[in-house]
Design brief:
The complex is a heterodimer of chains A (113) and B (113). By secondary structure, chain A is mainly β. Chain A has no helices and 11 strands. In chain A, the strands form 2 sheets. In chain A, strands 2, 4, 5, 9, 10 and 11 form a 6-stranded mixed beta sheet that branches. A 5-stranded antiparallel beta sheet of chain A has the order 1-3-8-7-6, with no helix packed on it. The model of chain A has no long low-confidence stretch (mean pLDDT 93). Chain B has 113 residues and is mainly β. Classes of the chains: A mainly beta (113), B mainly beta (113). At the A-B interface, strand 5 and strand 10 of A face strand 5, strand 9 and strand 10 of B.
Chain lengths: 113, 113
């Protein structure tokens, strides 16, 4: 089955800095890669996703890049703010019929004012 | 749109009792729902895929007789933890598939004494 590795496990940045979280996946058949933000005790919220026919996608301060050849994808957050502090999960699935997601272990992002 | 609710939001029970958790899609019909378990500071682990009108598909290592899943309608899936033990204490989150995107419920915090 699919295996998703996520790094780093924790990331501390100063407000205004950029943050980058990286994930690799094992199954070349995976073609849907969402990123979720989860605050303590709350549900994961989809923040951005990318499909394999696209190499990069951007939404305001958040961007995701995908390298299918190398089987890795990354989340980029620019101009970080304290409210960006949360745990971020990457995931991968085969986007066919219904999407069974395999999650990375998560990255705790701490943005200091 | 695509709102998923869970009930209860938290529950405390005695060891040996059974607990039922409900997952509802409020504004859409969900043929497929998913149940995850999340231990503190860990990622979401898929337990099973719940399909309306048919048996759930359990992930390897998840006891189907202990974690009973019923998906009797297009808007409701239930997870029953039978003969709960302290090691079953966890955060249980459901999600529903809507056009190949998963929308998560708010989670249920289960504590078994």
């Amino acid at each position: 089955g699919e295996n998703v590795e996520q790094h780093p496990s924790t990331l501390s940045v100063q407000e205004g800095d950029s943050a980058v979280i990286k994930c690799t996946y094992s199954d070349s058949a995976s073609n849907y890669f969402p990123w979720y933000k989860q605050e303590l005790g709350k549900r994961p919220q989809l923040i951005i996703d990318i499909r394999s026919n696209v190499g990069e996608k951007k939404d305001q301060r958040i961007a995701v890049t995908l390298n299918k050849t190398a089987k890795h994808f990354s989340l980029h957050i620019t101009e970080t703010q304290p409210e960006d502090s949360a745990v971020y999960f990457c995931a991968a699935s085969m986007d066919s019929g219904y999407s069974t997601l395999t999650f990375g272990k998560g990255t705790m992002l701490l943005v200091s004012p | 749109g695509a709102v998923v609710s869970q009930h209860p939001s938290w529950v405390i029970c005695k060891s040996g009792t059974s607990v039922k958790i409900e997952c509802r899609s409020l504004d859409f019909q969900a043929t497929t729902m998913f149940w995850y378990r999340q231990f503190p500071k860990q990622s979401l682990m898929l337990m099973a895929t719940s399909n309306e009108g048919s048996k759930a598909t359990y992930e390897q290592g998840v006891e189907k007789d202990k974690f009973l899943i019923n998906h009797a309608s297009l808007t409701l899936s239930t997870l029953t933890v039978t003969s709960a033990h302290p090691e079953d204490s966890s955060f249980y989150i459901c999600s529903a598939d809507y056009y190949n995107e998963q929308f998560f419920g708010p989670g249920t915090r289960l504590t078994v004494l």
